[in-house]
Amino acid sequence: MNRRAFLEKNTAVFTAPVASTLPKVAATGPTPPDGVELSNSLDDGSASAARTMAGLGAYTGPWGPVQAAHLLRRALFGPTRTEIVTAAGSSMAQVLDGLFTPTPAPAPPVRGFVFDFTNVPMGETWVTQGWNPFSEGWRTLSLRTWWMAQMVESKTLVEKMTLFWHNHFVVGLDSIGDGRYSYRYLTLLRQNALGNFKQLTKDITVEPAMLKYLNGNGSTAGAPNENYARELLELFTIGKGLVTVPGNYTNYTESDVQAAAKVLTGWQDNGTTLSGYFTAARHDTSTKQFSSAFGNRTIADQGDQEYKALIDMIFDQAETARFLCRKLYRWFVYYTIDATTEQNVIEPMAQLLIQNNYNVAPVLRALLSSEHFYDAVNLGCMIKSPIDYIASMTRQLEMQRFFPPATDPAAYYGQWSAVMNQTGAQDQSLGNPPNVAGWPAYWQAPQYSELWINATSLRVRTQHFDILTGFTGYVHLLGGAVHFLKFDPLPLVASLPATVASKSDALIAELALLLLPQPLSPKQLLYLTNALIPGLPKFEWTKEWNDYVANPTNGVIQGGVRAKLLALIREMTELAEYQLS
Amino acid sequence: MKRRHFLQTTAAATVLPTLLGGFSIQAYGYSPKLAALTNAATASDKVLVLIELNGGNDGCNTVISLDQYSALMAARANITIPESLVLRLTPATGLHPAMTGLKSLYDNQKLGIVQSMGFPNPDYSHFRSAEIINSGSDSNVVLNTGWAGRYLDGEYTDYPNGYPSAQNPDPLALTIGGTVSSSLQGPKLNMGMAITDATSFNQLVTGDVEPAPATPYGYELTFIRRMKSQSQVYGPAIKQAAAKAANLSPLYPAAGQNTLADQLKIVAQLVAGGLQTRMYVCNLGGFDTHLAQTLGGTNTTGGHAELLNKLSIAIAAFQDDLSRLGVQDRVVGMTYSEFGRRVRSNAGLGTDHGAAAPMFVFGSKVNPIIHGTNPILPTNAGVDDNVAMQFDFRSIYSSVLKDWFQVPQSTLDGIFGRSFPYVPVLLQSTASRSPLAKTSPNEAHRDVQNFSVYPNPVHDQATVTFEADGGHVQVLVFNHIGREVLRVVDRTLERGQQQLKLDVSTLAPGPYYCHVQEGSHVSARLLTVVK
Fold first, then answer.
1. Size of interface A-B (CB pairs under 8 A)
2. Which domain holds residue A372?
3. Do the Cβ atoms of B17 and B376 come closer than 8 Å?
């Protein structure tokens, strides 16, 4: 059953008995979802059957909070209200300019854990220190924790793309067990986050972390290791096509894997200089023959420059551009790529990528300003990954203010790691994809991102908010100041315009725009109103809120208003809609 | 019923939310560890139903003081029910005419009334008052937990690990209607499971989810809703119970007409279906009647009459259903509201935020009397005048927990911070009863015997005299707005005549109420302080 037939057949409600058996089309499902009817279309009324054919052409429709929030939700980890309002008040081009603005490299991670028995003092960075068998675990945790904070702090596309590249050029940080390598690797990804795909592929190939992770460091002329060569072709660049005959994957063959492995021999990593290095004696100097997939090209010995020739050859194939563009599409738009999308979106993206010699920024900008991206059917359809869920909640609810200052490294790292660990509890351990293919939610058909939603992850997601609003919050005890990480909604709501904060309908609508990807139904508004002011007329919220504003330091009045706001926000975060972005 | 029976099936918990019809379902449940400790074998079958009347119910027009009708007319003629239309329970006390169902329950000894329930220092904020009455705190103390949640958390610290289990398959408590009650908030986690409304309940039972648009968004939304529904750990237990019983009473209004009736209908079905859930919290909103609580004329129609009518119809139908289903002896219920309303009405045919108000206790096992006396109404009430508390709400909560679930006094003291006077709102036949519980079911509200305050008016010191029965006695002084200004005694006194010194030297001149409560007996005297 194709997707369109499914959608048409279920215009009122999906009635399949078990969610996991809901039919899905595969990655390149054939039928476009045209003819789709929207029963809760957006305010601008832009939804129409014809628009579902929308391609990469520039979006010229209305620009307001709905579109701005959509763009920022996909480009950042959960925009704040201020970011949405500012973006809605600017032009789309201005917003994109901001998202693509290069940002200075963040200060490196430091020692933040008291049990990290190392010679590095608390608060000092370890990234240039010698390898320490007792510290590398703590350093890696420090790095992953720091990374979480970077994602929350970021106001540009850089962090979303850094995570994209991590999921693309996977290195398992815990598995390589060297915080300094991991920091170098992440720095490379961050520096090239909006840069050149081809160059990044070259750099990552001889990056020590990757040499170690995929055994490139053990590949010699006498015993070439095919591991990296295979993943380079299958996962990092051109991708596996249809298997025509055993050993032929359309885009490349087994013999290409072997030839590429020979090209890549001779490289090792140096734990002292923290670099990849080439040893001519370990390199296979023969001329490597590639298959017809690559036009039967050969690569003669070029020593330490030879891997670049290999990568240039792979990037001469347009399929390499398409492969990356599909991944970008799934990262920013939706996982289903039907024939129409392939034709109207992926192919133009790929051509643009090639025209720009594999610079990704122009392609991303085209996608994020396309009529396809802003089409109503693409709003709110992405299931938040655990990292997106945790980071988004932190940003949207402006919780950074409740974290300890970076000047107290023990408390800062303690609390950020507690939050970061919530992603691992939902099977998306930051820095540790399960294998080199990356998290299955980005490639495993037919479920894709639905893999993120199960009984365990739903419980973790809810409990995270419950802990943040519980009696103690997350508690940091050891080293630095004792700290309780709790969410208090009062500063957030107090920062809203008085006419919004003091009116229950306006307040709920405002929070809905902030937290939910689509407008509330009347029934939901009623339900949420009842969470805020159970059984009371709406003016009572105004009265109680104004009472708080007039007596902002009265603990008893604070407590009453806070409890009601928490009840409201809790209910909003427990809506199924809150899982969507 | 033994305490361990309650323990084995009630438990502390956390939030295990899922989405049902787009709305949250939260559950809390039982402790297998405790069940093992208590060697659980026999489940208790007692059920407590709490009905929250949101907004602050106007007690003076709900339970009407016929003995002070002229004071009522002086204070609120524009909304007062004609004397002849009041449903008389006793010569002195009657019900609003919209509550024929409750009148009938009273006549059949299935309804008790607790007069002037409240807390010592009223707060006119809905939020704060609801917080106080759900948390069980003092007025000047902010507790982030609910009284039921604290109790459950103390007993079942392990929740939610391992829940539900074969021994304890059912949720401990359910909020039906709206979001989970804050009375069920535990120290660490919210401990309630909420079923939003009848639609959500039906969806829980049938496995359907809310309709969603036919877009990728709607597609994923439906997927998530299904996953949430499926991961609702108590979904199967509720579904199973719902399948085992159907409502039998013809008295329920059609669905959608009376939200409280719709909620109680679900309670009756689940109780009869064998769900071992101990506590249900239901609610009826709209009691914040600042404006037009009557439509004038005879004042028997309008918003307040409609609410009281819904309350009465819902409880009467529920009680009828329980009886037909053969489970009426297992269930008691009580109503509560965050506050009552001012004695004096406003010009808009409404009433403003006040203090104490009556509550109803219903079921075949309640003590079917009027506890306490009619409130003393000022002969010419000013805008500030309030009904002073006769019964601290914590007296009622703790007495119900004690009698219905056999919770020991030491545990109750921990839950409520201290001991409160016992009030026999339920009929009990077990041995562990306080002397006061010997109250005959037919013994009507009895005044505190030989109660006097002398001299009166008083300058700085008076003597309070009365006969004590040997139980926990409260002697309190309230000002005219219902605020507690002196706590003379709050402890067990020996049986016999008491003479207590009352020092009013710190009080400003003016009218006060001196109030003595022991068990169901409450009396108050107007006390005038002069300087």
1. 190
2. 1-62+334-381
3. no
